């Protein structure tokens, strides 16, 4: 062990003449540990929020969506769908028909976005139908059909004939709002009504709930519903029309580039959006929150560093005689300065290690047991996620040690300026 480190460790363990110096040193260690642990937990939470929101958004929505610019829907879509399935980096494609509806059961009602789908295709671009917790999405499969082409070409009357009441799958929060369970019937009303002698009358149709999905993402669980594509077309009086073609790609972070290729292949009159464009503001806000949280909680480490400065300053005053004796034996001023620098470093290292252990332990417990629950209506997810990363330890440790070392500069310089003759004159 180097001479300076040996003396610094002895000073740190030695019994104090003034108890207050030892108390302040202990407070410094606890302060550094608390600051480091808080930073690790805060970064784990913000990273967990970003990770969970991104994974759920990506799992619940398509990577790329193609729509008509005019917004009047896509007709003769089958050849276009087959053509775009062969675009490089596209791994799956599925047609869909969106529409805003009112879903009611008795006196209860709620707005919903219903999507007409071909289940086998939809499951390749979205995980929502795979998150059915009660019932089964298999009920959405058209009966007596051999291929996807035959499925979507069936007329609404043929579908209605094969099943008296068409099936629907709804989100768990929407089901709770309606008080609906699997097997119950709900009335779906479309604002795109029919023209009658009495004027425009909203069109409605009874559906049977065959499945309830729970994605954990409130936006979808509270307002999404799935029906067969032919049933949705019949409800909206739009035979053989879709509003969107959804795509899954092999590289999430190249979705923007791939979407431009799809748009060019589709030709004029089409436009694409991707998951990064749709959620840019959300992830930008999460990044900003992470930076602000780091800066604010780093002030805890700064306060702990002030305690280190006070403790070392008082220790220099307490050890003035010892410093003078060492210097009279030939210890250089640079060595005295390094003694107190290392003493401050030891305080910081001990506090940082304790803080890292506590921070990662609490983050692991929070992520494993999910004991902190959130209001899904406010935060979109129903629990507080923790996702600590190893590089967080490097970042937080570097900040903690750097700030603490800055706090040791003044007391270490003061110790190096002690004059042995002056310090020992009255001893």
From TrEMBL:
Chain segments annotated as transmembrane: 20-45, 291-317, 338-362, 390-410
Region annotated Disordered, chain positions: 139-159
Signal sequence, start to end: none
Gene Ontology annotations for the cellular component aspect, listed alphabetically: plasma membrane protein complex
One Pfam family matching this protein: MacB_PCD
Stored InterPro entries: ABC3_permease_C, Lipoprotein-release_system, MacB_PCD
Residues of the MacB-like periplasmic core domain: 25-263
Chief subcellular location: membrane
Record's keyword terms, sorted: Cell membrane, Membrane, Transmembrane, Transmembrane helix
Location(s), subcellular: Cell membrane
Keyword Ribosomal protein: no
Ranges of residues in domain ABC3 transporter permease C-terminal: 295-417
Membrane disposition: Multi-pass membrane protein
Keyword Transmembrane: yes
Cross-referenced PANTHER family: LIPOPROTEIN-RELEASING SYSTEM TRANSMEMBRANE PROTEIN LOLE (PTHR30489:SF0)
Family label: Belongs to the ABC-4 integral membrane protein family. LolC/E subfamily.
Protein name: ABC transporter permease
Lineage: Bacteria, Pseudomonadati, Acidobacteriota, Terriglobia, Terriglobales
């Amino acid at each position: 062990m180097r001479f300076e480190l040996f003396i610094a460790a002895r000073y740190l363990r030695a019994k104090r003449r003034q108890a207050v110096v030892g108390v302040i040193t202990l407070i410094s260690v606890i302060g550094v540990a608390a600051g480091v642990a808080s930073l690790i937990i805060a970064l784990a939470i913000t990273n967990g929020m970003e990770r969970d929101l991104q994974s759920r958004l990506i799992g619940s929505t398509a990577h790329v969506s193609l729509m008509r610019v005019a917004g009047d829907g896509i007709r003769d879509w089958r050849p276009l769908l087959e053509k775009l399935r062969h675009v490089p980096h596209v791994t799956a494609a599925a047609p869909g028909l969106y529409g805003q509806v009112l879903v009611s059961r008795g006196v209860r009602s709620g707005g919903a976005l219903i999507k007409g789908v071909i289940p086998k295709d939809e499951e390749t671009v979205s995980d929502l139908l795979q998150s059915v917790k009660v019932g089964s999405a298999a009920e959405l499969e058209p009966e007596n059909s051999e291929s996807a082409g035959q499925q979507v070409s069936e007329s609404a009357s043929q579908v209605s004939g094969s099943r008296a009441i068409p099936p629907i799958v709804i989100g768990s929060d929407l089901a709770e709002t309606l008080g609906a369970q699997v097997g119950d019937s709900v009335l779906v009303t479309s604002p795109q009504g029919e023209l009658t002698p009495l004027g425009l009358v909203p069109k409605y149709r009874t559906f049977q709930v065959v499945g309830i999905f729970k994605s954990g993402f409130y936006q979808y669980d509270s307002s999404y519903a799935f029906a067969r594509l032919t049933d949705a077309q019949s409800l909206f009086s739009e035979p053989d029309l879709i509003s969107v073609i959804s795509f899954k790609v092999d590289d999430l972070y190249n979705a923007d580039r791939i979407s431009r290729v799809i748009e060019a292949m589709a030709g004029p009159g089409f436009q694409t959006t991707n998951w990064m464009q749709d959620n840019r503001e959300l992830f930008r806000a999460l990044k900003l929150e992470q930076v602000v949280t780091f800066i604010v909680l780093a002030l805890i480490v700064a306060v702990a560093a002030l305690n280190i400065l006070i403790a070392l300053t008082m220790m220099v005053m307490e050890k003035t005689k010892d410093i003078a004796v060492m210097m009279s034996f030939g210890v250089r001023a640079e060595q005295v300065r390094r003694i107190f620098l290392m003493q401050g470093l030891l305080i910081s290292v001990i506090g940082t290690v304790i803080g890292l252990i506590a921070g990662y332990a609490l983050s692991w417990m929070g992520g494993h047991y999910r004991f902190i629950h959130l209001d899904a209506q406010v935060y979109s997810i129903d629990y507080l996620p923790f996702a600590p990363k190893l590089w967080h330890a490097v970042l937080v440790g570097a900040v903690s040690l750097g700030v603490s070392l800055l706090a040791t500069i003044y007391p270490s310089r003061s110790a190096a300026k002690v004059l042995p003759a002056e310090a020992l004159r009255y001893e």
